[in-house]
Amino acid sequence: MALSAxxxxxxxxxxxxxxxxPSLVDSNPAAPAPSNGHxxxxxxxxxxxxxxxxxxxxxxxxxxxGAAPPRIRATVSKQPLISESFTxxxxxxxxAGKDGKPTSLGEVMRQVIAQYKVKIEASTNQKSRQTTFxxxxxxxxxxxxxxxxxxxxLSPTITLVLPAxxxxxxxxxxxxxxxxxxxxxxxxxKIDVPPKExxxxxxxxxxxxxxxxxxxxxxxxxxxxxxxxxxxITIIGPQPLAYEAQALLNEIIASKRSRTTQRxxxxxxxxxxxxxxxxxxxxxxxxxxxxxxxxxxTAREITVSGEREGVVRVVDSIKSAVEYFTNEVTSLxxxxxxxxxxxxTGKGAEEIxxxxxxAVIVAKLEEPGDEITVYGRAADLPAGxxxxxxxxxxxxxxxxxxxxxxxxxxxxxxYMNRVGYPKxxxxxxxxxxxxxxxxxxxxxxxxxxxxxxxxxxxxDAAVSEVxxxxxxxxxxxxxxxxDWLVHRIVNSNKNAKKIKGFHDAHxxxxxxxxxxxxxxxxxxxxxxxxxxxxxxxxxxxxxxxDVEKEILKLAKDAxxxxxxxxxxxxxxxxxxxxxxxxxxxxxxxxxxTLSVKVxxxxxxxxxxxxxxxxxxxxxxxxxxxxxxKIVEDAKNDExxxxxxxxxxxxxxxxxxxxxxxxxxxxxxxxxxxxxxxFSTDPDEKEEKTSKKKKAVHQKAKVKENVEEAKKRIxxxxxxxxxxxxxxxxxxxxxxxxxxxxxxxxxxxxxxxYGVKITFPRESAENGEGxxxxxxxxxxxxxxxxxxxxxxxxxELLDAVDFEKESNxxxxxxxxxxxxxxxxxRSGATINEIKDNTGAxxxxxxxxxxxxVTNIAVRGTKxxxxxxxxxxxxxxxxxxxxxxxxxxxxxxxxxxLIGAGGQGLRDLIARSGxxxxxxxxxxxxxxxxxxxxxxxxxxxxxxxxxxxxxxxxEKTVAGLRDRVVLGVEIPAAQHxxxxxRGGQHLNDLQAKTGAQIQFPGSRSYQSVGExxxxxxxxxxxxxxxxxVSGPRAACEKAVEELKSQVKPPQAEIVGSLTVPxxxxxxxxxxxxxxxxxRSFGVHVEQSKLPQKPAVPPTPAPQSDxxxxxxxADDSAPAVEAQWQVVPNYQDAEAGESEWTFKAxxxxxxxxxxKLVQDAVEHAEKMTHVGFLTLPDRSSFPRIVGSKGANxxxxxxxxGADITVSREDSTxxxxxxxxxxxxxxxxxxxxxxxxxxxxxxx
Length: 1240
What we know:
Layout: H1 5-11, E1 82-88, H2 105-115, E2 118-125, E3 130-137, H3 140-154, E4 157-165, H4 169-173, H5 178-187, E5 190-192, E6 217-218, E7 229-238, H6 239-255, E8 259-264, H7 272-275, H8 279-285, E9 291-296, E10 301-307, H9 308-328, E11 330-335, H10 347-356, E12 359-362, E13 371-376, H11 381-392, E14 396-401, H12 406-418, H13 421-428, E15 433-435, H14 439-442, E16 449-454, H15 456-473, E17 477-480, H16 487-490, H17 493-506, E18 508-511, E19 522-526, H18 537-558, E20 561-567, H19 573-577, H20 582-588, E21 594-598, E22 610-616, H21 617-635, E23 643-650, H22 654-658, H23 663-672, E24 675-679, H24 682-686, E25 692-699, H25 703-721, E26 723-729, H26 735-739, H27 744-753, E27 755-758, E28 779-785, H28 786-806, E29 808-815, H29 819-823, H30 828-837, E30 840-843, E31 852-859, H31 861-880, E32 882-887, H32 893-897, H33 902-910, H34 917-920, E33 924-925, E34 935-940, H35 942-960, E35 962-968, H36 974-978, H37 983-992, E36 995-997, E37 1024-1030, H38 1031-1044, E38 1052-1059, H39 1063-1067, H40 1071-1079, E39 1082-1085, E40 1107-1108, ...
């Protein structure tokens, strides 16, 4: 191997010799002056200048005759020559004559001599075939350049691969690529570092080129850094320079090996929750070392990076903790409904761990089974189970079944997912979460449920909304069978307008499945949210059928699809697929109108030695030929190990093809597995007129990948060649209208015409927009194909004309104090003006000391005139307003305001004020609650304010004269005084002008104590009626009330003894007393029972859950529990004396007779039956509308029937035959449920 200049210096011990690779200035070849141990700050060698040094040879030596003293100077000698020699073992001229390179050694030497200021001599030993070169130059820098050029032209080009630890990559690259650039410049070799996507650590590869075929490779097991991957760095260049670059990189790697990265892998799933909270303990184990920890939850591994000693200690600590918990924890398995599992993951699992020190592991939602496993130490498991149950029941979950059959359920689910309905529903009902079935379970499920989780009121509201949506969607969906391979053609930009027109014409939305699902069906949905949607099922069905015909017609016109089976032995499949599917991607092509299934994917159970190709006939034939050729090449071992192709494209298109940060080229590399390099011929640098660049594409194994990449690049270049741009002069004021909200208008134009439209952003200091293209604030740039640019330009100019007509602007000012009224509460007033006029209104934010505020109105002339008039009208009202105040004691405020503000509205109406509630709102302002002020402020038109003040003072004066008097009215006569609907009371109040409050009314207590309370001290509170208002009115009302009081009548009293055990059966839950009151009879009881009405529900017996079949064999059987116990067996003993008070003897006799009949009926209710049904789904049918069915059953069977509100038990009380008849009737009703229905 040839030695470098630096090696020769060290070999010959040339101490103090100049640096052979200076980077800033030319070195002085003279030997340095001897050092005395002190630093010479004026020394150019110790502190070289950063500016380039002038070439000594180009400067003419000055004469000594005209110079300053001394008069006689020594003759200036010529700059000494610097020489160097090196030997090349074998001169390599294999690339001579290509691309304009010299063809012989002599031509190489002449070219280098002409290019650099050096002298070169060469001597070749014919026996050893070694050639020694002697170089001389007046500049070390020129000599080094000449040497590197000779080595590059005469040495063989080699490729070295240096495995570098991933943690050293950032240091190798350096800030902004400075380090790797310095090595490249020093050695002249090409250094490739894989792109950042290939790195497995957090390193950055700024400025490095990459080969996507290279990936990070772990080091062998047993190394200290076994967990740190290595990155292959490729060095390509002349042999000695490549070795020099390798040595420089090895030095950098050696300096960074003090840091390491290790991973603790395969932590058991149930142990990981115990390890994560101990992060602080692990960091303490680092003992002050710089160590970072990263958790990969999915891979169940922890990555530890940092200083080597600290990393080792932390890794040992983690492994020790894993081993400890593995030995300590035990498990307990339990079952919970699948819908509750989602509450036990994520934050829910973390809360359980924090509360109980136990971990809960649940199966994936798409996996069958309801089992969950709780892990923890034996002492912690009870608390863990409690925490799990508490968390599982912490939220209300409603399972909403999508109506069937199952294909309809899937259609409804598809629509809800495609329109993002779960997110919309969650946003509309804060506090709930909506979950749809996992995609993996949809295909096999027989019933699809939508789970709604949250607080019960919010969930119930969401369920109602979903029910309403399902009602609109049921019968409004339809699937159309269309081969998925033609979906892309049917749903292309060409047909986009027609498909969108289906919604405009038929109100039907079209949903194509994702291409990756390869699903040959298209979903049609009659839009339930459209304002023009028809509720008629006939209209929905007709619209769906019309769109189905149109879609099928588009599919028929799209392509002729066929399927072809290619017999290929399984061992050749890997050649067809290629690495990471790259070859298969090349076969399928960019349009992806083919489906290629290899081996087992083809679905043939008899063999895997086939490849199934399905798609458009023409593409299928092409793909079959390519597959057969690849297989034939593989069989004949003719696959090229490294296939290269070169072609030229215009230089101006290279940047667009490469893309931002190489995105375009990287996409081709990842998709097809090719390497793409763009290079410029040396001669092109001299020819400024040339516009060509050369692209080189390489692929390790398969030729087809390279050709496909070449075809795609040429296609893109041809498309760019047709590209043009045009700048339109459009005033900046119209830009926002042309762009639209969130850019929707300009995006539509770009998609329609396939162009890029650029508007200037906010102006920079130089007045130009802050965009990549240099455009002015009043310019718009359109880029794209010539036809697309012309179409977009025409439509954009038409839109400008429309904007000019509808985007007129007028600016004016209003007093700042009127702005709040113009805006209204939360912007209600200004938004109403916008909606009514269609104008856009911008109100500037005025400063605090400004008396006026600027307002800009945009829109049509009519709209802005109307909006301005409305704004000025409000402003003028504020300008003409006056303010005043009235002193009103705070105790009168509530009375003046009235219920819901009705008192104020009546006050304004009496004063002749406005009737508009919005205008009324600002007229009268009462102090806020808690303020000590008694001032009521009035603001508005001067005349209205004056009238309001007078009316308010009048009303307050009346309130100040207000008194409260009491009068005794027997409670039995209150109903007569109030009258039906309060009519009599209202008439009395209107007649006297006073307010009358009866006991039990809402404002009875707030009226206050009557003045004559001492005179009425002996009156029963139930008989005391309060009268409030002006004294004269109150006195008049009291006299009127006293005149209408009827003298008390003598009551007729009777009694009856009722056994306590029959109390509940007789009273019928209070219905008996209500009936007696309707007779005018009141009842008093001497004693009430303390025990419950019926015996408690007995414990279920072993045979209590047997099938109970109805006598009618045609009725289906219902699983239920039926238990009968004697009534009154544990009933309370004793009797109660009932005292009846009636107005007349007839009512008394009638009441006693009714109670006696009830006692006789209670004696016959000897048994109690408890009928427990499987669920409450049949209760609505049992109860009936407003209890009609239960009432009918009671009448028919003679039994008392109570339907529980808390559980699924029906209690039947009566004779043994009566409860049996009632039970059979209820079972028959519960078994007649509709088929196919499933209750939530």
